[in-house]
Amino acid sequence: MISLKERINSFESWYKSHPYAVIAVVVVAVAIVVFLVTPGSQGTSISEEELARRDSAALHIALMPVDDCIPFYYAQRTGIYDRLGLDLRIKTLQSQLDTDTALARGHVELAYSDLARAIMLQQDTVELRAIAATDAPLQLITARRGRVRQLSQLRERMVAVARHSITDFWSDRLTDTTRLARADIFRPQINDVRIRTDMLCNGTMDAAFLPEPYAGEAIRRGNKLNFTTEGLEPQLFAYLATESALTDDTRSQQLQLLFQGYTEAVNQLQLSQYQDTLAVLYKELCFTPDSLLDSLALHARFMPLRAPRRSDAEAALEWLRSRDKVKAGYTIDSLIHTFPIPQ
Known about the structure:
Blueprint: H1 4-17, H2 19-37, H3 48-57, E1 59-63, H4 70-77, H5 80-84, E2 88-92, H6 96-104, E3 110-114, H7 115-122, E4 128-133, E5 139-142, E6 159-160, H8 166-177, H9 193-201, E7 207-210, H10 214-220, E8 224-228, E9 237-242, H11 243-246, H12 249-269, H13 275-286, H14 293-299, H15 310-322
Parallel strand pairs: 1-2, 1-3, 6-7
Antiparallel strand pairs: 3-9, 4-9, 5-7, 5-8
Helix pairs in contact: 4-12, 9-10, 13-14
């Protein structure tokens, strides 16, 4: 019987005579192990063509990180859309200008914007329709260092807006009601809502029109609420969809599921046990300071979707005409689209 020592000596002698064979065996063994432990190596990998097919079939939407859009994010985060069978791809953008651009270039099927911006786009041959709206308020917040206590004190002050949008609309409304000339207020265009908030809070701007949660954040950082559109008309915030999405049965069904998930999310967000998830969304999407997360989540209110109103669109059209921004022959007859919205 061969002893262990003799076997070892025999192997050493063979190894010295065949070193490359041993190396080859080791390499093959390592390759097998890597193959077995690598994800997708056992027939589960997805080809680039399949990924592209899935992306093309999914619904793409452009949103802003504001309270009007938070229910969509919440529904995606908590699995509501998975349960409904909707493959949703959200493009998060910081301004209405960017969401409008995404829609105009065909990158998304639906975008968050407003009726004034919708008119500007539609008359520039972008085939879109307004299919949903909310009554979310817009707030005018004045900087704590500016000592603006009355709207009439905004003369020769800087009020941050997004041009030809709902913020610009209401800045004109305020000057008209306070007997200021529209040119009396300086209105730098600050499209990015996060930057607009920070510029107000650090005193670069004297005032700014802000949606929630940025208005609430600015107030909690010591600035003053000077005006709100809550309860006033017109209400211009709207969701715009491409004409091609509305005439395609599959896309239309996806949009219905999108709004169904939104409605479910709004109902859940009214309950206190979901405030932690809301705080996480504020932190990730809005870059809300940690010290304000709990307070903003506790007092947040989310508006249900409703159908867009022709009267609101007419008000936006009249305002744009006062600025000579409406092309000859344009009408809003095809702007408003009746779309089923779950209650």
